[in-house]
């Protein structure tokens, strides 16, 4: 099973700051990586697919990069609605796995 | 409007069974690869199962193999998850999710249905 390790576990930032979230895979997954945002009591929402492609309707302040084993989700200037939990997910091999999540909280 | 709506969750005793449903609307369900994903209370996301549009390919996470069965009825635009021999550790919110084109990421999610396994 491919293990995804997200860091940091919690990120405390202020609105307007830049947020950088990391996801490391235990083996090469090329670009078969997606990022999701989840707010309390809600289902996850797809942000980024194939490591760097924004999903439909996702603001341009969200960007993804990386390939192989190291990936990054960047939020260029945090808006109040961006404070949530973020998960990475790989679909390179079965079973599909998720990272343990990064909680982005208001400082 | 594109929508997935789960139902069938509830409280069940260990060893019991439950059948979850997921009703789809607003997109071409019959060609969509559908998944179940669960989230235990206060925990992260765990992929559970997948079924392709024609029910020709199914797969499960190891922890539910032999206990859970995924199926679909394309004439009714509905996905199912039959869960048996339930364990306390199966307690979670269960989401159905549709994958994007070419077995892409999970781009459509339902709101989830809660399953509690407890005596």
Description:
The complex is a heterodimer of chains A (107) and B (119). By secondary structure, chain A is mainly β. In chain A, 0% of the residues lie in helices and 50% in strands. In chain A, a hairpin with a 6-residue loop joins β4 (33-38) and β5 (45-49). Chain A starts with a strand and ends with a strand. The model of chain A has no long low-confidence stretch (mean pLDDT 97). With 119 residues, chain B is mainly beta. Chain B contains no helices and 11 strands. Chain B has strands at 3-7, 10-12, 18-25, 34-39, 45-51, 58-60, 68-73, 78-83, 92-99, 106-109, 113-117. In chain B, the strands form 2 sheets. In chain B, strands 2, 4, 5, 6, 9, 10 and 11 form a 7-stranded mixed beta sheet that branches. Chain B is globular, with a radius of gyration of 13 Å. The A-B interface holds A 34, 36, 38, 42-46, 49-50, 55-56, 87, 89, 91, 94-101 and B 35, 37, 44-47, 50, 59, 61-62, 95, 100, 103-107, 109-112.
Attribute tags:
heterodimer, A: 107 residues, mainly beta, seven-stranded mixed β-sheet, four-stranded antiparallel β-sheet, B: 119 residues
Helix content of chain A: under 10%
Number of helices of chain B: 0
Overall pLDDT confidence of chain B = 96
User: Unreliable segments of chain A (pLDDT under 50, ≥5 consecutive)?
Assistant: none
Q: Report the principal-axis shape of chain A.
A: globular
Q: Helices and strands of chain A: which structural class?
A: mainly beta
Question: From the alpha-carbon coordinates, what is the Rg of chain B to the nearest angstrom?
Answer: 13 Å
The helix/strand series of chain A, from N terminus to C terminus, equals: EEEEEEEEEEE
Q: Give the C-alpha Rg of chain A.
A: 13 Å
Shape assignment of chain B: globular
Profile the largest sheet of chain A.
7 strands, mixed
How many DSSP helices of chain A? 0
Please tell me the overall pLDDT of chain A.
Answer: 97
Largest interface: A-B, 23 and 21 residues
Coarse structural class of chain B: mainly beta
* Total number of beta strands of chain B: 11
Beta strand % of chain B: over 45%
